[in-house]
Fold these 3 entries.
Entry 1:
Amino acid sequence: MADAAPRLWVERLTLTNFRNYPSVSLELGPEPVVLTGANGSGKTNLLEAVSLLAPGQGLRRAAYGDIARASGDGGWSIAARVHTSLGAIDIGTGLASGVASSEASTGRIVRIDGVTKQGSGVLADYVEVAWLTPSMDGLFSGPGSERRRFLDRLILCFDAEHARRASRFERAMQQRNRLLGDNVRDPARFAGLEQVMAETGVAIAAARAEAAAALSSVSERRRARDANSPFPWAVITVDGTLESDLSYLAALDVEERYKAALQMGRERDRAAGRTLEGPHRSDLVVGHGPKGMPARLCSTGEQKALLLGLVLSHAELAAERQDGRAPILLLDEVTAHLDASRRAALCAEILHLGTQAWMTGTDAEAFSALSGRARFLAVDEGRALLRAAP
């Protein structure tokens, strides 16, 4: 699968004043990368740096000003040589020293082959990254906002416009909420904003519903391929008014219906102090297929296996849609809650996908199934050194 098109991988990664790294440079190959070391040594910081080669705020969603090394000058930089579908390119991103904290929270410098670009969104044209971190272990039992964010991040790997639509919807909704809060009652002040919300909101809902259906289809194929996989097949849907309407109405009809609902619901929303209907209220619903049980009711180990199954299904789907080119996977402390058989199965899945997966753990032996097939690096307080595989 992975050899049908140019692979996506990081050849060189150089960090300056990034988190606990004064300066570090890694030379890599297209194979998976295993980072091992003690807790707090800087393994996750390297994953965060790779995540910032894609649009957005990275896997920690940190304010850009907080990324700089504590004893540095306030600036930080990432330089990478990345092999993409368009060939090898140089990506640079970071924050200049002396930038005010208010400015640091709004943007970062992005350069492609030395040319400065406007905003990090342009990175979606070159790099697709998906990640799984320990903070996501409670995804199925936590707030719906986290599940929406998880799904939206997956969609970005094959629909770069999704983030822009979400941003337009959010801005329009915030402006509408402000009008409601200011007790504005002029219909003309609302009409344009609600039109934007209807157009972008339905597009967001359609992308989510389509992604959920596609992920379910891949999960079903994985079931047929290996019914006893330690990463169980899943039932995946999106629960929301717009998604439900799209199942039996044309998109234009759903837009008109949502626009009318926003107009009729102004006084209700005014009383609530927020917009009560739209894609910001939808929820990703996942079920454990073999057990016929909602994911939120499963054990911690079962939830972790389901989550990994979702990430693997997504990587397979993205590869299918991009001529075999899988996204880069960032799997932080991925072996937690996995027994030996699941660890071995995960390594086999990663090799099958042909992805440059970056994985962290405290014990290199947990990744022994990748011996001779991955780049093993030992991380120690701002240093990353090549080490022999277990």
Entry 2:
Amino acid sequence: MGKSPFHLECIGCGAEYSPEEVIYNCRSCGDLLSVQYESELPSNIGAVWTERSLSVWRYRELLPIKDYTKIASLGEGGTTLNRCSRLSKELGLREIYVKNEGENPTGSFKDRGMTVGVTKALELKMTRVACASTGNTSASLAAYSAKAGLECVVLIPYGKVARGKLAQAVIHGANVIRIMGNFDTALDLVRSLCSSHRIYLLNSLNPYRLEGQKTISCEIRDQLGLPPDKIVVPIGNGGNISAIWKGFRELQGSDLTDDLPQMIGIQAEGAAPIVASLRKGVDALEPVMKPETIATAIRIGSPVNWKKAIRAVKESNGLVETVSDGEILAAQTLLAGYEGLFVEPASAASIAGLRKLVLSGKIDADEKVVCIATGHGLKDPDILSRLLPKLTEADADLESIERVLGDIPPTLDVIA
């Protein structure tokens, strides 16, 4: 727990690896790796953090970087935690908060992981980085690679990435390659590419990237003063829910919080292998061969971090739920209309899932809940065509406008 030194540790067999190695899976059993810290945090670390601005690097003692003077940063983190009073009343809950990760530099939570992952690439003296992506990962990696002066390679599934995200990757200079297959195929290919060449893999398979994402936990703790009862997270590859849980566990281990939240994972009905596994009670994943959902960011049929995600749910005594595309779109409109927060469909899955769990009685009315909104609504502009009603038209004169508006009360005074 705490600051460097640290090492990589297999979540399966416990084998340990040096942080100087470029490795993504255990060589003994092939399982996932996790960053483990070997020294304790200073007793006054909470006070130290409050002296710094709210950001990912506020919590640098909890991050696996040795040289803080060479950080690749665009000012990530420090996102607002919005108390949603109107939404709370609509859903019948005491307190709902939305952590708006769309405020990050490239518009999604992926920036938290990329600032750490790209900085680690620099420490390891890598000159090229790569990822497979459904959109947000490519946009973020391209931006941070540009900042760090690294060559960036991105593999995306043909016709399955929102234009807003694709435009970001292109404008930041990434070498974007569209492949005839889904995300899971793209990830298999990029893993092979990185194992065959000196190219640093920065999908969530990379344990260092998840360390940046766990700072969501630290910010929520600082913004609320204590963890909420429940945290609702959309699940795609499974990295974010596991990272957030790891963050809270480390805060508890350092006596920075006594309580832990329940982790609630939400998947789209057409891409829900983790939910299916938990409901069946099996310790294996049955991939969805042709995942389909309007929420492109979580359209993943074979999530690499499924073991970590399942552990987060089980260890926290949490819940999982699926939501339909119709429920996702309804939640996206609800959040925008009630709270002024425009999020992409994958983000709205957390609101849709919360609504469904409240209606089924699985969440009590007096609980404090935080929903993670993972990306900004403008990330997926194509979806607007499904949301926008036919716009009202009027002649260019006041009388026509008033006719459209109907009965409106007169003002007592009009100040020109």
Entry 3:
Amino acid sequence: MPRHNTGLGLTPKEIAAAFDDPKWTECYPPVLSVDQAAALLQVPKNTLYLWSSRGLLKGCGRRMGKHLRLFRNRLLQHVFNQGLSDHE
């Protein structure tokens, strides 16, 4: 059975507005460490590493040596709009 896109359709403006409060921007800056991204998405950091290794976070970040850095807004847009599926 084909899966339907159940994304929320968050716009870049809506995502940016969520971080208008300086408190949120301090906790979750534009470029996130894995710990910060895991806290933001409320998932274990091993889950982020798994998603990354499976290619499910393409376009959301980069490896810098042994460290993974994720672009906050791209990550949120990807997770909530496109979803994380091996079978797209």
